[in-house]
Amino acid sequence: MDRNRRHQQLELHWTMFLNSEDEASLNEAFSSLYFLSVDELMAYGRGMGFDQPTCEDGVHDVFCQVYMKRRQLSAVTNITAYLFRAFRNAMLNVHKKNAKQADKEVAQLPFFTDVTVLDTMIGDEERRDIAATIARLMAMLTDRQREAVYLRYMHDMDYEEIAELIGLQVGSVRKLVYRAVTILRAKSGQLRNPLLSMLAAWWSFTR
């Protein structure tokens, strides 16, 4: 399922979940929300450096809270941003509990991106050819730049949503994305690969 269709489906099932009056419809909508979101949340958690079981526990906790607090969530208009924020907070709580680190130190958590996050943009044949190159390009970014680019381009979040999610000012997020795109455009342009040039133009156009 492409990103736009997935987003539409999420919004549809979120509305159904909030407004369902019978238990069967409620549970069906809730199940759809879970299965439309779980892979994305797991990938985000792995990007933050957490292992599979920890990410699974985090997703479980987030959806338990969503179900129990349904009546309090009517003001939520962007379910993707809400779920990512709740999941990120859950993961950071695990990190603080295990590492006994202050919030300032927690903010320095690394962020990794697997090139599979570009699956909706790159076909199978091309992906095999340039996956390693894209990984090297992303490695040139800072952790926060990678995270901001991931949220901006892979999940269509606006700057305000990203700022709230990762605890930065909106202007700081804009600078992160701008600098990241500048780096990606410059480096991909030097490689003279048509597909990378196309990606560079896309990064620039959607900034």
Approximately how much helix is present in the residues?
over 70%
The proportion of residues in beta strands is under 5%
Distance between the termini: 23 Å
SS-based class: mainly alpha
Evaluate the radius of gyration: 18 Å
**Which blocks of ≥5 consecutive residues have pLDDT under 50?**
117-121
Total E-strand runs = 0
Order of helices and strands: HHHHHHHHHH
Roughly what is the average pLDDT, rounded to an integer?
Answer: 80
Taken from the alpha-carbon principal axes, the silhouette is globular
Number of helices: 10
Largest sheet composition: none
Any overview of this molecule?
The protein has 207 residues and is mainly α. It contains 10 helices and no strands. The longest helix has 25 residues. The chain is globular and about 60 Å long. About 2% of the residues have low confidence.
Please sum up the structure shown.
By secondary structure, this protein is an all-alpha fold.
Which tags fit this structure?
207 residues, mainly alpha, 74% helix, 0% strand, globular
Write the layout of secondary structure elements.
Layout: H1 3-19, H2 23-47, H3 52-68, H4 79-99, H5 103-106, H6 124-139, H7 143-154, H8 159-166, H9 170-190, H10 194-205
Helix pairs in contact: 1-2, 2-3, 2-4, 3-4, 4-8, 7-9, 8-9, 9-10
